[in-house]
Design goal:
241 residues; alpha+beta; 2 domains; 4-stranded antiparallel β-sheet; 3 helices
Length: 241
């Protein structure tokens, strides 16, 4: 009887050990990407282009999704899919996915780089029209750009009505979730930087171009270049990624 008990105990131990090894092996087979955040104000994954191909790096600069795409966005909502007539594909419109283009085909990928959905015209819904008018817009006076509050500005002869008196070669108010505190692309001495509505320099004037896109609204980042060819993203502390 004792021998039988020992045999059963040994058998159970072996099975438990085997199950543990199987579980550990399964976990190792599917490692999670390193999405540790250093800066909480910007996304976990950032598009980066190398040798003409686009991939995604983490905040440490390591490629998590290999560069193979012709085009890619931040991980951001796609309103056409969120409003799709096909309920099964609406989940691919959430910010858990990014839109990419590969060899003339468009996909939504997840944060491991897996192609989760390929776009189909019949799946695309209509986006609701949600236009938010800008409060602060550029105003040109004698060839120079300034900023005015469109809700108050009436007389260009009164310098006190200018939020920023015209002094720049160029200004562009970026799209933002906070229209009262937008970021403004500015040009001075043929170089580009970023200022706020108080005329404080946020990004120094050291770039040959800064793209006028939705990168600030989507990711609180700016897409910049110093040579006019190679663009990359920086945060509001001028840290490059």
């Amino acid at each position: 009887m004792k021998n039988l008990f020992r045999i059963l105990l040994f058998t159970c131990s072996v099975l438990a050990a085997a199950q543990t090894k199987k579980t550990v092996s399964k976990k190792r087979a599917h490692p999670k990407p390193d999405l540790a955040k250093i800066n909480d104000s910007i996304p976990e994954l950032i598009p980066q282009r190398i040798d003409g191909k686009l991939g995604y790096i983490n905040q440490k600069g390591k490629f998590i999704i290999k560069p193979e795409y012709n085009f890619g966005t931040f991980f951001w909502e796609d309103c056409n899919l969120l409003n799709s007539p096909n309920e099964k594909v609406r989940k691919f419109g959430t910010a858990d996915y990014a839109s990419v283009t590969l060899d003339h085909s468009d996909f939504r990928i997840d944060k491991t780089g897996k192609k989760a959905y390929q776009f189909k015209n019949e799946d695309l819904g209509k986006c609701p029209i949600t236009y938010q008018e800008k409060i602060y817009t550029p105003y040109i006076l004698q060839g120079f750009y300034g900023i005015v509050d469109v809700t108050k500005f009436t007389d260009p002869k009164d310098y006190r009505q200018f939020q920023i008196y015209p002094q720049y070669q160029y200004l562009y108010t970026m799209e933002s979730d906070d229209p009262k505190n937008p970021m403004i692309i500015a040009s001075q001495n043929n170089r580009f930087g970023v200022i706020d509505i108080r005329n404080k320099v946020i990004i120094p004037f050291e770039y040959s171009d800064i793209k006028r896109n939705f990168s600030w609204k989507m990711a609180r980042m700016f897409e910049v270049t110093k040579d006019g060819k190679n663009y990359y993203f920086i945060d509001d502390k001028n840290k490059a990624y």
